[in-house]
């Protein structure tokens, strides 16, 4: 249980960092020149995303808000279930990261009407270069990866146990 409290604290710090960065980004004037970091590989800019990822369904406010809220509620319910479970620490870590990202973006979506994105990457392709993220987006992606890895590890472990049991019976 103590590990889960640490994980929750870490996720809360990431949530706070993202909200702070979004606040600072919103203080910038629209159209302000993007800043380059790490030799121009990382770009800091201000983008308002009115849809889902990559502005999908932009202009469909009710669908975007409703879908985001429903996904957030389902994620929160699963997260609470994992918190009180004695197993599933890795799944809990994944959902904690995802929840941090979801809450940050939900806050934006309902408070501002759009999600503030501010991290881009240098790329030769202008379509890829214009894609912009925030810390919450990275939390969602990392959390999904941790959750998938935890589930895959569980499946592999289950298969190995089944095979070992089968081998013991033949001995």
From TrEMBL:
PANTHER family: LIPOPROTEIN SIGNAL PEPTIDASE. GO terms for molecular function: aspartic-type endopeptidase activity. Keywords: Aspartyl protease, Cell membrane, Hydrolase, Lipoprotein, Membrane, Protease, Transmembrane, Transmembrane helix. Belongs to the peptidase A8 family. The lineage of its organism: Bacteria, Bacillati, Bacillota, Clostridia, Lachnospirales. It comes from Sellimonas catena. It comes from the Bacteria. This is Lipoprotein signal peptidase. One of its GO terms (biological process) is proteolysis. GO terms for cellular component: membrane. InterPro entries: Peptidase_A8.
């Amino acid at each position: 249980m103590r590990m889960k409290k640490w994980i929750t604290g870490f996720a809360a710090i990431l949530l706070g960092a993202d909200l702070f960065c979004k606040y600072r980004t919103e203080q910038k004037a629209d159209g302000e020149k993007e800043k380059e970091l790490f030799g121009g590989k990382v770009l800091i800019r201000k983008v308002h995303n009115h849809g889902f990822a990559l502005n999908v369904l932009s202009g469909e406010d009710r669908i975007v808000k409703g879908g985001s809220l429903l996904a957030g509620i389902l994620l929160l319910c699963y997260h609470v279930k994992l918190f009180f479970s004695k197993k599933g620490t890795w799944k809990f870590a994944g959902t904690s990261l995802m929840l941090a990202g979801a809450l940050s973006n939900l806050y934006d979506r309902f408070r501002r009407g759009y999600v503030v994105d501010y991290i881009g990457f240098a790329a030769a392709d202008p379509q890829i270069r214009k894609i912009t993220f925030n810390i919450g987006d990275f939390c969602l992606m990392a959390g999904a990866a941790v959750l998938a890895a935890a589930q895959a590890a569980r499946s592999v472990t289950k298969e190995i146990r089944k095979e070992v049991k089968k081998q013991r019976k033949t001995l």
